[in-house]
Amino acid sequence: MIKLFSLKQQKKDGESSPKANNQKKASAAQLRITKDINELNLPKTCNTEFPDPDDLLTFKLIICPDEGFYRTGRFVFSFKVGPNYPHEPPKVKCETQVYHPNIDQQGNVCLNILREDWKPVLTINSIVYGLQYLFLEPNPEDPLNKEAAEVLTTNRRLFEQNVQKAMRGGYVGGTYFDRCLK
Amino acid sequence: MSENQEVSQNRWGHLRKVLERPGPFSHPEFEPSSDILDFIMSTCKVLVIGAGGLGCELIKDLALMGFKQLHVIDMDIIELSNLNRQFLFRHKDIGLSKAEVAAAFINKKVKGCQVTPHYCKIQDYDETFYKQFHIVVCGLDSIVARRWINGMLISLLNYEDNALDQTSIIPMIDGGTEGFKGHARVILPGISACIDCTLDLYPPQVTYPLCTIANTPRLPEHCIEYVKIIQWPKENPWGIAIDGDDPQHITWIYEKSLERALQFNITGVTYRLVQGVVKNIIPAVASTNAVIAAVCATEVFKLATSCCVPLNNYLVFNDVDGIYTYTFESEKKDNCLACSLIPQNLPVEDPSKMKLKDLIELFCESTSYQMKSPGLTTYINGKNKTLYISTIKSIEERTRENLTKSLIELGLQNGSEILVTDLTSPNTLTVRLKFVNNHIET
């Protein structure tokens, strides 16, 4: 049996005055993200940018696909890791305007592991690969940008042209896209 | 025997039957004694975290069990919708602190009981506060808060030569309910599974695929989520984030959701549902709270008195359809980032001479570490600090200058902990600096 305390033992009296930020230890989310970041194994098409090296919870991922519809493009994603990581996934937004069936004009990304299929065993690396895959295989089945998805299923050549047009900067349909070539 | 004593002996007669004689269910090593009741009533300090549905039950249960040194901490104020089950509060208390009203109520009703309220976040206090308790019992609804107190209690553990000093353990009893389901668990930090060991066990928040929400909504929830995720950021009617407690916000989302539901022939969008989806409300059931709190209070009693074998270590309860309950032992995770990081002491001869690169060299060349490209972070003044990470280019460039700084120049002190991760190990290593010639005052 574990004897946790003797009956006479008084615990040391604590001071009850609030003292914020006097913590000596990193939070569990912080520990986990530190591990994730250290173990990041990026494909050669991806790069990260940390604006503040002390803040591993906020960073950007830059993807420059070297094949597929989106080769020669450069796409920036912002990552925000919350205090409940890895119970909850990080918030990921696409900062580059892109003509893509699974990314909308507000930068919302439809990737299953970013929402309904997130599991605490997944890591930042899993998301990086997921995002990279979106550029290699845009998925017209579950679109966020319905027009783009329709073009992709009905006319792949036109889709390719539209992607090129958007990446060079210009109008596709009624929407203007900023230039995002590498 | 004075009259007063007699009255009190009568009052606690039921406890004395359990504590002053052995019984068929008592712990094999239990030594009955009248000192135990004394301990509960005059020495044992219990912290109740949360004064909500579970908290009200817990404080009441513990107070009536003879615990007199109770503390309760809660950052919330009382709302109308709490009153059906949080029975320490009345209509006149709406808007007041839950912790303060609950403490005052118990202090008035239970003779001799001293509940000390703390109207603040658990994060507002540091280890000097948490160290004073014998046992912590939680009635929380948030995983973040559970992980925080879990981490705090683990940080209070004392290791000597890698052996855990058992007197530094503060047991944590965690209760939780969701509708007709609930759980209670006993956590002995450093010994049994902690909150982070079993993080995968918590049900994920209900989410819907973004594309379904955007294109093929079928449920009223899909319409509400659409307005919440897509329409609000786009139109941002008040230029701020959604406040689930602002009726104007809820009304706006309700109206837009109705429009969208109409468009897709979906029925069932109501104001209450909108409120529920936006605030993630799960209906609370008073009887579930009562059961789970009773289990938790019993565990506090068992741990405080050692009279019975404590729960080992996880109980689930479900009364959706009849009653189902089951206990099992959740296992400690070997590489748990919260509780497996036992700090290893690292003696440092001269911290004003030793540079960061010397430390890294030590991790790479010493036979006991043999690392390849360790990443080092630490925690200084309540803030994370990256000392050096070579594997990320943008971080490497900005932390390179740290390599030639001495440990003192980097702000490290005697006792500072450095987290070291390396591809040679799936575990994170925690190193605690021990300045050998500690004549340098920091």
Automatic annotation (TrEMBL), chain A:
Record Pfam families: UQ_con
Record-linked CDD domains: UBCc_UBE2F_UBE2M
Positions in coiled-coil regions: none
Molecular-function annotations in GO: ATP binding; NEDD8 conjugating enzyme activity
Skewed-composition ranges (Low complexity): 17-28
SUPFAM superfamilies cross-referenced by the UniProt entry: UBC-like (SSF54495)
Active site: residue positions: 110 (glycyl thioester intermediate)
UniProt keyword annotation of Lipoprotein present: no
Name of the protein in question: E2 NEDD8-conjugating enzyme
Record organism: Aquatica leii
Species lineage: Eukaryota, Metazoa, Ecdysozoa, Arthropoda, Hexapoda
Automatic annotation (TrEMBL), chain B:
Keyword Cytoplasm included in the entry's annotation: no
Domain of life, per lineage: Eukaryota
Keywords recorded for this protein, A-Z: ATP-binding, Ligase, Nucleotide-binding, Ubl conjugation pathway
Catalytic activity: ATP + [NEDD8 protein] + [E1 NEDD8-activating enzyme]-L-cysteine = AMP + diphosphate + [E1 NEDD8-activating enzyme]-S-[NEDD8 protein]-yl-L-cysteine
Cellular compartments per GO CC: cytoplasm; nucleus
Domain E2 binding as annotated: residue spans: 348-436
A Pfam family matched in the record: E2_bind
PROSITE patterns per record: UBIQUITIN_ACTIVAT_2
Any GO BP annotation: protein neddylation
Pathway recorded for this protein: Protein modification; protein neddylation
E.C. numbers: 6.2.1.64
GO molecular function annotations of the record: ATP binding; NEDD8 activating enzyme activity
Active site per the UniProt annotation: 211
Keyword Repeat annotated: no
Family statement: Belongs to the ubiquitin-activating E1 family. UBA3 subfamily.
PANTHER family, sorted: NEDD8-ACTIVATING ENZYME E1 CATALYTIC SUBUNIT (PTHR10953:SF6), UBIQUITIN-ACTIVATING ENZYME E1 (PTHR10953)
Function recorded in the entry: Catalytic subunit of the dimeric E1 enzyme, which activates NEDD8.
Protein name in UniProt: NEDD8-activating enzyme E1 catalytic subunit
